[in-house]
């Protein structure tokens, strides 16, 4: 088995392992009526998983996982490839390396990868959000459903037009596409806003942690010679690299989590309420009205449990891959 096959297999297995937690997190973030009462404690997470298993069996815990597997490989590949390209442009030499340039390199890489794979993210969330056993959709049917969804229209009489509905609302209703591929980008504005701190802080935190672990006082314990090129700068030992990656996951998840909650609520907008496309401000007001500031951090503990080890492994494989390939 090649190193690439081993990496893909390991990443697939890791995503599969955390898939039940990921589904519960989505249900919490999107404020599913059936599971909202369980939010706030780890006991609630266990209870939610038990209810899903009781209703739909083990398969229910992996609802939407097929779309996750389709998305994760191109997402990770594009993100790390794009980071190297943006980094080469923004940081052409060591003299240009600053925290801000690192931040923007990571942010642009994240935006690039999420734009390409975002439709699969929406499909995954919508599959995971469905809780009615009798109305469960397949991957193909959920795609058709999302494509044909359209915002509801309000009939406005000529006599009440100016008094009841603002002109900009009428213009928005006319300009908003009723169906089509645009539906696969529900919540994309909040995703872009969240990806800037998430991917940017992720790469910035990883590179900064790597610098700290290479400080002269720590280097004898945290670094080892490059096996492919002994004359090159030493690389971090495996445990130090895992610490740097885990730290990056912790920082990025914390910085972007409120926007992730907003994004989830926007993504399921076509499946709840009147189906109209929710804006970021409207969604944020709804979350605040329902739960206050705590509503923006629902499921954060699950996020840490999932993201920190995943980021640690991801950055470890990324850095070791560069060593193997001589990059």
Q: What can you see in these coordinates?
A:
The protein is globular. Helix 5 (99-129) packs across helix 9 (188-213). Helices cover 69% and strands 1% of the residues. It is built from 13 helices and 2 strands. It is an all-alpha fold and 327 residues long. 36% of the residues are buried. The longest helix has 31 residues, at 99-129. The model is unreliable at 153-177 (pLDDT under 50). Strands 1-2 form a two-stranded antiparallel ribbon. The two termini are 22 Å apart. It has helices spanning 3-29, 42-56, 58-61, 65-90, 99-129, 139-148, 161-164, 167-175, 188-213, 219-222, 238-267, 280-291, 300-325; strands at residues 223-224, 235-236.
